[in-house]
Write a structure and sequence with these properties.
Number of strands: 39
EC number: 6.3.2.10, 5.1.1.1
Helix content: 25-40%
CATH topology of the largest domain: UDP-N-acetylmuramoyl-L-alanine:D-glutamate ligase
Catalytic activity: L-alanine = D-alanine; D-alanyl-D-alanine + UDP-N-acetyl-alpha-D-muramoyl-L-alanyl-gamma-D-glutamyl-meso-2,6-diaminopimelate + ATP = UDP-N-acetyl-alpha-D-muramoyl-L-alanyl-gamma-D-glutamyl-meso-2,6-diaminopimeloyl-D-alanyl-D-alanine + ADP + phosphate + H(+)
Radius of gyration: 33 Å
Strand content: 15-25%
Protein name: Multifunctional fusion protein
Number of helices: 29
Pathway: Cell wall biogenesis; peptidoglycan biosynthesis; Amino-acid biosynthesis; D-alanine biosynthesis; D-alanine from L-alanine: step 1/1
Keywords: ATP-binding, Cell cycle, Cell division, Cell shape, Cell wall biogenesis/degradation, Cytoplasm, Isomerase, Ligase, Nucleotide-binding, Peptidoglycan synthesis, Pyridoxal phosphate
Structural class: alpha/beta
Length: 830
Amino acid sequence: MIYLDHLLRATQGSLRQRSKYTHFRAFSHDTRQVMPNEMFVAVRGERGNGHDYVLDAIRKGAVGLLLEEQVFQHFSEQTKSALASEEVSIVVVEDTRVALQQYASAILEIWHPTVIAVTGSVGKTSTKEAIATVLSRQFTTFRSWQNYNDMLGIPLSLGRLEARHEYAVIELGCDHPGEIAALCRMLRPQIGVLTNISPVQLQYFSSLEHLAFELGTLLTSLPEGGQFFYNQNDPIIQSMLEQHVHQVLRTVTCHPFLPDTMGKAAERRQVTVGWNGIQGTITRPGNGEHGKGEHNGATLQLSSQLLGEHNFATMLAAHQIGLSRGIYPTLVEQALTTLKPQSGRLNPLPGIRQSMLLDDTHNAAPASVKAGLQTLSALAGEQSQRIAILGDMLHLGDFEAEAHRSIGQEITHYVDYLITRGEWATLIAEEAQMAGMDTEHIIMTSTHEDAAQAARRILASLPDADKNAVILIKGSEETRMERVTELLMARPWEASELLVRQTPGWKKTIFRHAERPTWVEIDLNAIGSNTRHIASMVGPQTQVLVALKADAYGHGALKVARTVLQNGASMLGVATVSEALPLREAHINAPILVFGYVPRWQMREALRLGVSVTIYSKEEAQALSQAAQALDKTVKVHVKVDTGMGRLGIRFEELPAIIELVREAGQLSGLELEGLYTHFAQADAEDQSHVRLQLARFQEVLQALEAEGLRPPIVHAANSAATLTIPEARFDMVRPGIAIYGLDPSPYVRLPEGFRAALSFKTQVSQVKWVPAGEGISYGSTYVTERPTRIAVLPVGYADGFRRSPQNWGVSLFMVKKRRSLAVYVWTRA
């Protein structure tokens, strides 16, 4: 609860508009999530300004506004008039972020709850919730909201603090040096809890040692008489304590998660993991184990509904803090039994085909991924198939590649099937292959839909006795792996209640980390959908080869390849051997046809990569045969016939030579005749006469080969345009290119309804300004303003593929973006 008087005193803010509302239920800084009777805080960020949405906040029910003086002064008269007509209290400060921090410090000082700060690499939120649950058995306890754990989120969360709260359990996060110290100065915690130290956010800390120093700041920030609880099984924490033994430990009491009553002697620890939760027992060896009549050691037994052995440390932390606060042991233990998995944190959910999902999609770091895999293996046991769907682990700096590879090296111990989603996650798959995992059980994907579809295929292939498969789904926050969970839920309509990031704000959030404010977006789901449309159009008897020439027409060959292969394509096409190399290096083992010229010095490389090669002369076939024999390999070949394209291929008129080449290709040692094809020059033209001529010529060649019993297994001719308009040209396989990317082959051959463009070129407006009449715009001043004109400047240039010439672009609409009362239309014009 936020009281207006407290806020004004804490921030020295100015009340610019008074209303009947003098207290507010909570703070909100996102109009997509604001609730009635809340105070909306307008925060300026790198990608947006909350002041642009104050009227939206009021319409959503906000009855208070916290605004910045500099922006408030420059509101339009229309906005000021709209605000004046509303029953809303307006507080104006210099900086809303600083004001929130001032309020957080002040309200803790006014209501003075005992502040318990929880930090660590992983497990912070679960530990915070466990501690708050235990304390709530005897005390009124505040817990920071969700995982709001930084200099913005914690003050926002503390808007929910009330005078009745005796304890405040607050999670501290950090993504840059000095943040823990700054949070502690704001919160002044009396008790600190450190869960563990393992690699996270290393892009900002550069090393695990620097991260350990940052997290250790919690200990050095505690006041004299403070208490520090730590995981005694973490060697990095133990080392940190040794470094601070003289500096801090004289004034701060340190408690390991293991209770003092267990002593420092070696203990036996047994943790049982099941679907009902975990049960842990720790026994301190007593003298009774070594001699008759001597007393037995101490025993501690705890249980909860949390899943995973690693959560026993969470329970020990909450247990120890509860005892230290004077709560009776039985009450502590009863409180722990009520702990349940939170959304996105090893939360079990019913899945399709009698599977069980382990939704662990909140976030991912090496330690938490390994814990998830161990839990998957323990819960599945020997009776169920173990499937892991893993997305990228991010924010690991230079450690990212090593982190993914380390998971891949161990994953064979925990799973039967591995599905990866994302580029970093492919390193897990590569290492799993090298570790001996069956390649048929490893699937690499680039979209949520393809990852889920891969899991569906695995489940469909399992015997009925194995249908109770267990599926772990995990990835970093930005990878949004909860979307995979939703696609596999037996009751997907429950997703909004059970999964993380389901609020309207999250639903609209797209993470981007572009180096520049101009970028290209590739919709792989559109590519997958377009591929399915093509496959459905040609039917199951006709294969689909997707052309990936020129880096998949600029869409990214690797991601496109994985996507189309998951959505109906059975073969890939490239222009050169060098284009096939990165596909094979990425462990894409699907058939690949090289359309173009393969020089003799590249033939061995083609054989090494296992690609199919286009041949069009006897000499080409013989050279390829010699290379194959030298390497003791076999290469598949496709004979190309030039029926009117005028490019690579043996001319259709040379029918005897074609027959001889096909026969020789089927007989030469090291060659396997796989295909025969041609390429249409005008399939996308309004006049179909030329493509019909080419088709007739190709059919004549095909008939002659069939008469000789030489028809290859795969005959193909249709590019995108012919696939769409000439069914008789589809033969055994089609070769769509431009249609896969959602573009019309030409103005005369349009894509059917349902196809979607995959590429979007986007940029942000860098400046909006008025230019007087008679002024030229940009190079050459090819456009001169006829009247005072409001223009928008875009940060786009040569590096983005946007050329200065030709000068006359006509009128090209680049962006329509509404911002407050301004609609910005940006174009170039001769």
